[in-house]
Amino acid sequence: MTRDLIVFGEDWGRHPSSTQHLVRHLAEDRQVIWVNSIGMRRPRLSRADIGRAVNKLGNAIKRKPKAPPVSTPETISIINPVSIPLPGNRAAAAINRRVLGRKIRDTAEARGLRNPVLWTSLPTAIDLVGACGESGLVYYCGDDFGALAGVDHKPVMACEKRLAAAADTIFAASEPLAALFDDTKTIHLPHGAHVDLFARPAGRASDLPCDGPVAGFYGSLSEWLDQDLVAACASRLPGWHFVFIGDERTNLDRLKSLSNVRFLGPREHGELPSYVQHWDVSLLPFVDNAQIRACNPLKLREYLAAGRPIVATPFPALQAYANHIEQASKAETFADAIEASLADTPDNRRRRHEAVLADSWQSRADEVRARIDAL
After folding, report:
1. CB–CB of 121/138 below 8 Å?
2. pLDDT mean values, one per 10 residues, the chain (375 residues)
3. Which of 211, 236, 259, 351 is disulfide-compatible with 335, CB 3.0–4.6 A?
């Protein structure tokens, strides 16, 4: 029996997460209500938080919310919630449960949802469990929320503990994450990739340097980026350009002071092949911490699908593709691996691409579909 879905995730249309990739495929044969982010930390009196709050409130009260920057299947209904972002606060939880729960139930009735399963990628949605008219509960764990930057760790981890106990099924994006939960109901579900998108030839981006070799990275530019390592490699390789694409979520002044390091800002997901297919080597220069040891970065399989050489600092998620990635933890060996990437061959590029042919988002969604519909 096909089960419709009520999904708690990040804001739909932002740089697509694994949840968005999976749900987009699941929506091919079912109705989905997508609830935009309800938050995992108390807002602060910062310009970014105030702006985000005003934007979310505006979207919530508009009769017709602003369209997201990516296409949305007709089977997906988006709710911009009015909720109180105070994880662990009982009064806020009660209000959110009553107000948002009613909104979700009304939308589900209007859309004719059948036996919906509640899917949450956010531990804080535990307060809505039982209030949405759902007939099953799935927790999709894509991060170590006990180590993730920008999260109120203590209340969020308490929410996750309650959620894991209540869930019928838990999908975990990495083996270290899967080990945190009851193995009788936990399934290791590695990330997939839009293999065709990243393998299909794309023209070279106009702002990608062309006067020397390029080492590139895209993704969130946050605390887990090893700036010491990058700075040392940029100094050792003055003839190389180091290009970074993504939102800046930490201070990058040290790297910005280097003449051969460039920050291009964020790009839409569909634009990324124009960069990764044409730079000389893809980078995964992460610090060694609990968050990275539990991570399974989306870009890993996208890098492989594009075929270019990859140089990375070691972390567990690389092991499945260890034969196709150069790993180095010291600046000297990392820089040497970057330099050696210029000797790459077409056969190596083909083998990297072939390594992820079975890892499409469609195949991951098929596994999820079978599990959900069997609940």
Report:
1. no
2. 95 89 97 89 46 46 52 94 81 92 97 96 96 97 89 92 98 96 97 97 98 97 97 98 96 97 96 98 97 95 98 97 97 98 98 97 97 94
3. 236
pTM given for the model: 0.88
- Pairwise CA distance, residues 117 & 3, whole Å: 6
The answer to whether the beta carbons of residues 225 and 286 sit under 8 Å apart is yes
Domain ranges in the chain?
5-192+360-373, 195-355
Domains 5-192+360-373 and 195-355 share a fold: yes
Give the residue from 19, 290, 303 showing the smallest Cα distance to 140: 19
Residue written as token pair 């009260």 = 61
Distance of CA 208 to the CA centre of its chain: 24
Identify the architecture of domain 5-192+360-373 in CATH: 3-Layer(aba) Sandwich (3.40)
Question: For the chain, give me the number of helices (H) and strands (E)?
Answer: 14, 13
Instruction: Please identify, in words, the CATH class of the domain defined by 195-355.
Output: alpha beta
